[in-house]
Amino acid sequence: MLKPNVHYTELKDSYLFYHIAQKTKAYLDAHPGTHLYRMGIGDVSQPLCSAAIDALHKAVDDQANAATFHGYMPECGAPFLRETIAEHYAKRGVALETQEVFVSSGASDELGDILDLFDHDCTVLIPEPAYPAYVDANVIAGHRIVHLPTGKENGFLPQPDERTNADLIYLCSPNNPTGAVLSKEKLQTWVDFANGTGAVILFDAAYEAFIEDNALPHSIFELSGARTCAIEICSLSKTAGFTGTRLGYTVIPNTLERCDQNFNAMWVRNRTTKTNGISYILQRGGAAVFTDEGQAQIKAQIAVYKNNAKLLTQALDELGIWYTGGKNAPYIWLQCPNGLSSWDFFDLLLKEAQIIGTPGAGFGACGEGYLRFSCFGSPGDTAQAAKRLKEVCGK
Ligand code: PLP
Prior knowledge:
The chain has helices spanning 15-30, 50-62, 79-91, 107-113, 132-140, 184-197, 237-240, 263-274, 280-289, 292-319, 342-353, 379-393, and strands spanning 37-38, 101-104, 123-128, 144-149, 168-172, 200-204, 230-235, 248-251, 257-258, 261-262, 323-325, 331-335, 355-356, 358-359, 370-374. With 395 residues, it is an alpha/beta fold. Pyridoxal-5'-phosphate is lined by residues 42, 106-108, 131, 172, 176, 204, 206, 235, 237, 243, 248.
């Protein structure tokens, strides 16, 4: 008899967002018509920039004309977009070959699919607190998962030590949920560790566009030695509002090999087997994001989210509440006041201030006692939330 993948039975219920929705609904049922300040959302609130919209419209018109029509696209990405992305890296001092850039339909898709490259008998290190998809994708793949807890004492920044033992290492910087960002020195420690042990780092750079401090790395390939130990997964979702439009890219250096197998060549084989490329229209929209005009427009959008972050961090500073993030990242990870648990503080904010945060305990055991605020909401709501936070926590 056919056996289903038994690892699906090992997945834990995605309790976090379900439970938030339940509590929110119960509150609204009891207080109909109340406006809630949703500081938990991970989705963006601003529309696509006009450079992307114009390029998308033009690409639709291309598809109406036999002379400019595109059918199946190259599986690894349109050359025009792969070249554009390689040039974007070059501007930051990272030299990439066009063939090292793969266009994807987003980081989530890649984070799951990329596991095809690794043996099932593999130990995966996931620093905690973590983006929940890392754990679930590896449970489904049947991998052994080891967690590396982080905390206030190390600023929620993971570092390897003599006990660290893993084949595959997830690093997310700027981090979701903590907003913490690995410095060049700390990231170099991981790169040296991976090159020393033969591990491979999956570097999730979905939030790199929020980095404003020039000393912090946007890409793991800014570090020496990364070309022999790292894969970088990027997305236009949070950078340019493509959450619903779907576009991302992945960098796999030609120089990344283990046991005489080349990961770039394997990914070419994977993509040419499992995909038929990303829509021409979307790739044109994505390419427009990398033009000077597109870059200026997305910077202006990111500035709106950063201003939201400033309103919230100013309130936390005034209240003397400890937090990470909010500067080079769109998330703020704060310690719940008065020793409250994540869910107790969630309840307090909902009932007393109509603010919805995301309880840190939902991102792993070491998130207990913390709460995440997202800065992707509307400026008006964020300003109100900051004011209400001060009133409730300043009592
Ligand atoms: N990686 C991290 C850390 C995220 O927070 C998210 C989305 O919230 C993703 C990846 C997924 O991005 P995408 O929309 O490109 O699938």
